[in-house]
Amino acid sequence: MKKPFGSPGKASGLILRIGQCLFSTASIGVMTSASGFFTVTAFCYLIASMGLQVLWSFGLACLDIHALRFNKELHNHVIMSLFVVGDWVVATLSLAAACSSAGVMVLFTKDTEMCKTYTKFSCNLFPISIAFAFVSWFLVAISSYVMFWLVASI
Questions:
Q1: How the protein assembles, per its UniProt entry (predicted)?
Q2: Is the pTM of this model over 0.70?
Q3: Residue 109 domain-assigned?
Q4: Which of 14, 34, 83, 110 could be stapled to 125 by a disulfide with Cβ–Cβ 3.0 to 4.6 Å?
């Protein structure tokens, strides 16, 4: 069976995992550098969700490096099922965190104009962090789709 783009043990899978890790880390870094983020629960949830994604993606990237370096096969049904469930959980949490944070930003900028009223908020940094979170979620969604397709074909 031909391994598709992004499958574990391939360089494309490693690139996807590194991208997930980098964008999640960037989201955390930008959000924590913004003043006033800790007063909004959705932003704290975004940081927690992205932290979980960093750990998950980094762990799987290390596994991909090991598989590439020692030419190991990772297409075991049990391992692939674990990857699918883990990717689904991380993708769901990441999407929920990004969407809730985006909703709070709409509330801040359009509905209540809190960004104009309260100068303690770094309202120009929040959307950047949220955009990084959405990109990270998109990369996890690609990985999740590939993993599901691989488990279904095994």
A1: Homodimer and heterodimers.
A2: yes
A3: no
A4: 34
